[in-house]
Write a structure and sequence with these properties.
This protein has 210 residues and is mainly β. The chain is 10% helix and 66% strand. The chain has an eight-stranded antiparallel β-barrel with strand order 1-2-3-4-5-6-7-8.
């Protein structure tokens, strides 16, 4: 009997690995799918909202008194700005107003000095936004002060121009623009004059988004 048990154990030791090889093996786990790249959408800058700021620049132009010799006038200007923008896709529409202290002066032929102490505009704006850059055209009404020795007057006219504005941060923008101003009939000192000037300005605004 003892010999039978020893023979059985010997046979099992020899044949065990072969029997195990014949048994079904577990299937390897399926390969993992590669990670899917999902691009992160970067939001475009929103130009809509109410804004206010300050602008400064230089003005140069011409005064043409009726019946007298024309003369030039120029000087620096600075003042506040307020406006509102509405954005539809890449198109931006709005209205803007400003009033600047003006140091525009000119020498009147024959004696005396012409001064324009302030200028204001109320304008519509329309432009195209390329994310954080806005290209725009603008136009509307203009109001200018004029002074000569012994007389002061305010004239009304029109203005048109254009510019470029950059978004510096979420609520801050900076711009550079050109405006042409035409006051066709300025009544002052018992006479009249045509007053035209070009405004080259830069500005910075703080915007409240909506």
């Amino acid at each position: 009997m003892k010999r039978i048990w020893i023979a059985g154990a010997f046979a099992l030791a020899i044949g065990g690995p072969a029997l195990a090889a014949d048994l079904p093996q577990p299937m390897p786990p399926p390969p993992r799918a590669p990670a899917t790249y999902v691009p992160v959408a970067v939001p475009y800058y929103n130009w809509g909202g109410i804004y206010f700021g300050v602008n400064a620049g230089y003005a140069f132009g011409n005064v043409a008194p009726t019946g007298f010799t024309n003369f030039s006038a120029s000087g620096f200007l600075v003042g506040p700005t307020i406006g509102f923008n509405f954005q539809a896709g890449a198109f931006v529409f709005g209205i803007e107003g400003d009033i600047d202290y003006s140091g525009v002066t000119g020498n009147i032929p024959g004696g005396g000095t012409f001064d324009s102490r302030w200028i204001g505009t109320v304008r519509g704006r329309g432009g195209y936004a390329i994310d954080r850059v806005l290209l725009y055209l603008t136009g509307g009404g203009a109001f200018a002060n004029a002074q000569i020795p012994g007389a002061t007057a305010t004239g009304t006219g029109w203005t048109a121009g254009g510019g470029i504005e950059f978004a510096l941060a979420q609520n801050w923008t900076a711009k550079a623009e050109y405006l042409y101003v035409d006051v066709p009939s300025l009544s002052i000192g018992g006479g009249s004059a045509k007053f035209t000037e070009s405004l080259a300005r830069v500005g910075i605004n703080y915007k409240f988004s909506f």
